[in-house]
Each structure stands twice: as structure tokens, then as C-alpha cells.
Amino acid sequence: MFIGELSMIPASKTKAAASSLKEKTDLYLGALTYHGQICGEGVVGWTGAALRVTTYLPTSTSLLAKHHSKAGRQAWDDLCQACQSHPRWQVMGDRSEKRTTDWRRARSLYVSTDWFDPGPPILAGTTGQPIPAYLLPLSDSEIQDVNGWAGFYRLHDKMWTCAEDRRLETQTYKLLADPNSELSSWGRAACRTIEERTGLPTYYHLFRHWGRRDAKREARRTCPGCNGRWHRRPTAKYGIDSFEFVCRRCRLISSLADFDDERLAHIGEYRG
Ligand SMILES: [Zn+2]
């Protein structure tokens, strides 16, 4: 992960100019977030006369103009108008950065994220390396869709993790673990779009936390989409082959449960 810093001076010393610059900055950062060019919660604040931004970047080149969406280009132009001089991003990070996987060399992809992972939600099937959505042959709105799904998924994962109330915990878990929940349906639809555009089989990672007490029964559970056999022994440390459950027909991957709980294990299992 890289860090980007931007320092800007408003076009004039008036309060209105400062407030306009802040507003344009928020719009610009929103466009970058939806396009997957910046990650996580950035920091925006005034130090003296300058408005400064610090944010994570998925790659050292994610802010290049060629990766911008139409909305991002417009927001950048508007931001420059609100500045005294043309602002420039400073990018910091490890120069020995591994090259981002070229999606054309991947044989499959999968979509997965969680509260603690602010990076790109699309990963290469073999290596598990993240691939920023703006590098794929997707339209601006399709990129916004998959990154929007990832943002909502992280919010629900955070809510589930922090929920003190058992009912809220169960409700949010259903959204994460049931393959037909609104959240899963959204993510699986994004997978189908990515598969259509790239021609690569694209899997959805289905979360599993509570499982069966009997380990054999947990391993024997069938695919929640088609009721077919989907358990297999992982054959790799990374990527799709590192998961214990894979259904090629339903494009689902999942893991063994972290804990057993017979009352909640049915969530995410085949319902007939
Ligand atoms: Zn299936």
C-alpha cells in the first residue's frame, strides 16, 4: 500500500474560497474512492493556510490521469480552479513494489473484502493479488458498482463485529453469509458483470463464521446455491485454491467456519 499527500492553497484568502476548496476536495476524493484509486478513510485538514490530504493508494500509479473516471477528471479540474496554483500529489511507498497482476494473465478472479481490508476487492484467482477495478475493461458505473458494494460490505462487517445486541449481530451476519441476501446478491451480480467483461470466471467469497459442531458435518455441507458437493482440500496458500469450498457452477468460494454454533450454522447453508 502507498500513501498519497496533497497540499493546496485556496485561490484567495476569503472564507468563501477556503470553503469552496474544501467542498471541491471532498467531491474529488469521493470520485477517487468510487473509482478505487484511493483506499480507506483519508485525512483532510487545514494546517495554516493549506488544506492537506493524506490517503492510502492501492498502487503507486493509481492517481495517473489515465486511470480517472469522467467524474474524477471533472472533479480534478474543478479542484484546480479553486487552488492558487496547480496542486501535485506526492506519492510515498516502497519502490520495490511488486507489479500489479495483469488481469489478462489471470485465469480467474474473485471478489472479497472485509472491515480491515481497505484495498481493491477484486483479486487474481491464482495469486490472490488485488487488481484495482480501473485496470479492468469495466465502465465507470460498473467500477463504481463493485467499489460501492465493497464499501457497504465493510460497513456491515464492522457492524457485525461490533454488535453488542444478539439480534443485530444475527441480522448483519445473514447479510454477509447468506448467498441470497441483498448484499450477497449485489456482490454476485458485480461478479457476473466482471466475468462478462473479462471472460474470466469470477467467484464471490461467501463468509462463514458459525458452523456445525461436528467437523465432518461442517465439511460435508453442500453448496448453498445448487446443493452440490463443493468441499475439497485446499491445494494452495493463496487465491481460490486456498479455500475449502468452491462451486464452479454457482461461482462461490467459502471457508470452514471459525466457531461452532448449532443455532446459527444454518445461515448460509442450502435451504432447498
Ligand atoms: Zn453450487
Verbal overview:
The chain is α/β, with parallel strands linked by helices and 272 residues long. It folds into two domains: 91 residues, Alpha-Beta Plaits; 158 residues, no CATH class. The chain is built from six helices and eleven strands. The strands form three sheets. Strands 6-5-7-10-9 form a five-stranded mixed β-sheet. Strands 2-3-1-4 form a four-stranded antiparallel β-sheet, with helices on one face. It has a two-stranded parallel sheet with strand order 8-11. The model has no long low-confidence stretch (mean pLDDT 95). Bound molecules: zinc ion. Zinc ion binds next to loops. The site of zinc ion has 7 residues, from loops.
Q: Averaged pLDDT, please?
A: 95
Approximately how much helix is present in the residues?
25-40%
Bound molecules: zinc ion
**General shape:** elongated
β-strand percent reads: 15-25%
Major sheet attributes:
5 strands, mixed
Write the layout of secondary structure elements.
Layout: E1 2-8, H1 15-34, E2 39-47, E3 50-57, H2 70-81, E4 90-92, E5 109-111, E6 122-124, H3 140-162, H4 166-177, H5 182-198, E7 202-206, E8 210-211, H6 215-220, E9 245-247, E10 252-254, E11 259-260
Parallel strand pairs: 5-7, 7-10, 8-11
Antiparallel strand pairs: 1-3, 1-4, 2-3, 5-6, 9-10
The chain binds zinc ion.
